[in-house]
From TrEMBL, chains A, B:
The keyword Signal applies. Residues 1-19 form the signal peptide. This is Esterase. It holds the Pfam family Esterase. InterPro entries: AB_hydrolase_fold, Esterase-like, Ig-like_fold, Ig_E-set, Mycobacterial_A85_antigen. It comes from the Bacteria. It comes from Flavobacterium ammoniigenes. Keywords: Signal. The keyword Signal applies.
């Protein structure tokens, strides 16, 4: 049997050359790239015989590095020892960006696509898919009467949701400018972080709702009737206050369609950058709705003279939120973040109002490394 | 207000350079690539000043084509007029594969990642996201006692499923070698095809279950505890008969967890290539289970002396399936497919048994273009 099977496999592989479009069966030599070595250095390899220069750049090697061509004509570079993290990189071959043909894993960040790899250990073990019960991740559409559109969101329901009768608390998790309802899943590793934290007993089982915070966009590029449009960073409606004003539509949809606890103690809202602003504005405009608020790398960012009602009388709204009470108001920011000063200003405003918050200052800047980290720190504090 | 907003946007964009990793704010000149022109030609553009040669290749330009450098130093090529289709392509810069930095849309096909674009009109309008009610797409895990593993699948529930009481029929849709539970969604445009066919009244609302047919793999690469492993075309367990033997676990999971009609008349199974073989083998081994069978670009592919019980006494199983009856047995294949002769052989076997089938011969080969087409033809025939 085995011999015949081998023949069939070889035959299949051979005729496969013409068989499956896009699939390259012609490789002579298997190249492994990136290779994560036992000491947490990482080796990149590229077969680019005619190239004069091959460079790699990414958050794993921010200064960039030139690969060297070996006797086997393969270009290689080994990084220094890396800390546990999900890293990204691109190759530049004679100045032209190329991706690593031996790494099938890419993530889009706004309009830029990069290769990724994961160095495990420490906090990065939360970002791995592990053999624990997995939640369900659904892409679902809801109607927003306020935005007059049918819109897409991502819903993570924890393992056991479908087969139980228990009601769950909900974390609403909001992306930054240029992101969409996919960002927290793909760049943020939310499903992996939640699966792992819940399985370890570190976070309560909860539903996580990842919305699309661009009021003028119904779904991530490619998933709406706009077609394969180029993703852009700053959309026209970004500071119009519409996302915040229409947020009630999302709460109503989730509470009408999922087995959730419909009470303040079971609602959390958090977001990064623009989504952090959304979270603080929404929680202040719905002052008796959320017991948990997370503001990641953000502050009050809207123009001071904005006419949008959600930004008006903001100090009065914060006072009302303070007086109504809440369990946790969590602010996380990196000390090299370009919004660091803005965040300090916002904390001064809160201090002046005796508005209590927990402050989590880290190193680093406006990065997904920090946002994965903040979610991992924030989620265990919820619904306790 | 507008002036202040503009200042803020500019500030945000400027400091954004250091702000969001991977996001390139430094572009001087906006390059549109690919541009789908009014006459259905497509223009590719690439900024690669130092390159000596830039080539584009893909199913939109199978013979490949060299771009020419204009006075503005941008390389361009315009294709001939293209038929409606979802197309893929890659650039080759001085012989090194590069992807189009101005096109954020990529799809992985086994271990190869390619840029994609869509030329609308005709059948390709079914592949577009349109403003019709959208189904929900969930990535969910189930336990397979027979395979002794917890495994991932994709479930499309049609618009209205969550808010109704109606019970739905189910189409089980299986990928080919090298594919997984994501393939029919990403390369096959299943959600778009089903949304559009259902909205047009051409197909009955149905649940579509896209399984992982690799018995030795629990989920698509990157979504299992194996980590970011390189996807391979021919897995060791491909012809071991395990996927077919364990299929009852999937039916049991779906019928135990979704609002579905649990009857032969409400079950369909179809697949492409390896998945076509799975479909015909499963439907013969569960002879009173499926009223609808779709065999796309496939045949009996397993080694003739395989010891797996699901392949044994196959003629007797087909006779039993014939005698039990069914509503539709649909065979689709392209006349330049490398399995065309194998498919003819299989039809001769069916003919010799007076086993009725519908035969749909097309041009083309073993391609996703055909498989999207076959799904679009097959789905309207189901559950009528």
């Amino acid at each position: 049997m085995k011999k015949n099977l081998l023949i069939l496999v070889l035959l299949f592989s051979f005729i496969g050359i013409q068989a499956q479009e896009n699939v390259d069966f012609s490789k002579k030599k298997e190249i492994i790239s990136p290779e994560i070595n036992a000491d947490n250095t990482v080796t990149f390899r590229l077969d680019a015989k005619n190239a004069k220069e091959v460079k790699v750049q990414g958050d794993c090697i921010p200064e960039g590095g030139f690969l060297t061509k070996g006797e086997d004509e393969i270009w290689t570079l080994t990084t220094k020892k890396l800390n546990p993290e999900l890293y990204s990189y691109s190759f530049y071959v004679d100045g032209v960006k190329a991706f690593d043909p031996n790494n099938a894993f890419l993530i889009r960040d706004v309009s830029t696509v990069v290769n990724v790899f994961l160095v495990g250990g420490g906090k990065a073990d939360l970002y791995k898919v592990t053999d624990v019960p997995h939640g369900t991740v659904a892409k679902r559409w809801y109607h927003s009467p306020k935005l007059e559109s049918t819109r897409r969101l991502t819903v993570y329901t924890p393992a056991g949701y479908e087969n139980g009768k228990q009601k769950y608390p909900v974390l609403y998790l909001m992306h930054g400018a240029g992101g969409d309802e996919n960002a927290w899943m793909e760049l943020g590793r939310t499903a992996q972080i939640m699966d792992n934290l819940i399985a370890q007993g570190k976070a309560k089982p909860m539903i996580v709702v990842m919305t699309n915070g661009n009021a003028d966009q119904t779904a991530t590029p490619g998933e709406s009737s706009e077609g394969f449009v180029k993703p852009i960073f700053m959309r026209p409606a970004t500071f119009a206050g519409k996302t915040e004003a229409a947020f009630g539509d999302i709460i109503q949809f989730i509470e009408g369609n999922y087995r959730v606890k419909k009470e303040k103690a079971a609602r959390a809202i958090a977001g990064l950058s623009m989504g952090g602003m959304h979270s603080l504005v929404i929680s202040a405009n719905y002052p008796n709705t959320f017991d948990y608020v997370g503001v990641f790398s953000s502050a009050l960012l809207q123009p001071k003279d904005s006419q949008a009602a959600v930004y008006a009388d903001f100090t009065a709204k914060l006072k009302a939120q303070r007086d109504n009470g809440y369990k946790l108001y969590w602010i996380g920011i990196g000390n090299s973040d370009f919004l660091f000063e803005k965040s300090n200003e916002y904390r001064k405003l809160l201090d002046s109002l005796q508005f209590k918050y927990e402050y989590h200052e880290t190193s680093g800047g406006h990065t997904w490394s920090n946002w994965r980290d903040y979610l991992s720190e924030f989620a265990p504090l919820l619904f306790q």
